Amino acid sequence: MASGGLQLMGFVLAFLGWIGIIISTAMPQWKMASYAGDNIVTAQALYEGLWMSCAMQSTGQIQCKVYDSLLKLESTLQATRALMVAAILLGLIAIFVAVIGMKCMKCMEDDQVKKMRMAVFGGVIFIIAGLAALVATSWYGNRVARAFYDPYTPVNTRFEFGSALFVGWAAASLAILGGSFLCCSCPRRETSYPPSRGYPKNAPSTGKDYV
């Protein structure tokens, strides 16, 4: 029962992490304009994401523009897109695989060992998906930080971490943690010992001696 509860908790955490990865990928706030310079502009806030750039006016109105050409984008942005999309697809595959191996499901009930292995395999895919999202968000955040501290970057064009990065980091951590819990449900191999040989029993004495 304890392993079943750990398995269920791992699946829930990994599923929430997968949902967070989708939300992070769709959010336009991967980086936001920094107003750390002398000229503070509060009339609008600029955001850039993986798919579009947005500007929020002081009135609360948001205007977004989708990137025109894929070939004109930076290689970092294209790689980040690919990793996040791969993480989403891997998470979707992991959900179907892990559901088959869950103890609360009736699939493959006749072979419990294979059923548990399916859950473990789903956990491994969840971990890979979380690592892909973690690499993507960390790589993107590293480029934002390097450009921010670059002395040749104009002050009015510097960006800071957006909320989508923090959502991505949290989601990747949940996916990795949930996948690890699923992997902990792997059945342990029991050591098999050869059957012990019994000593031959002496035949009961009948009290008669034969010559």
TrEMBL record:
InterPro entries assigned: Claudin, Claudin1, Claudin_CS, PMP22/EMP/MP20/Claudin
Annotated region (Disordered), positions in chain: 191-211
Database matches in Pfam families: PMP22_Claudin (PF00822)
Assigned keywords, A-Z: Cell junction, Cell membrane, Membrane, Tight junction, Transmembrane, Transmembrane helix
Source organism superkingdom: Eukaryota
Membrane-crossing residue ranges in chain numbering: 7-27, 79-100, 120-141, 161-184
Subcellular location: Cell junction, Tight junction; Cell membrane
GO cellular component, one term: bicellular tight junction
N-terminal signal peptide: none
Membrane topology: Multi-pass membrane protein
Main location: other
Gene Ontology MF terms in the entry: structural molecule activity
Assigned protein family: Belongs to the claudin family.
PANTHER family, alphabetized: CLAUDIN (PTHR12002)
Biological role: Claudins function as major constituents of the tight junction complexes that regulate the permeability of epithelia.
Protein name: Claudin
Source organism per UniProt: Centropus unirufus
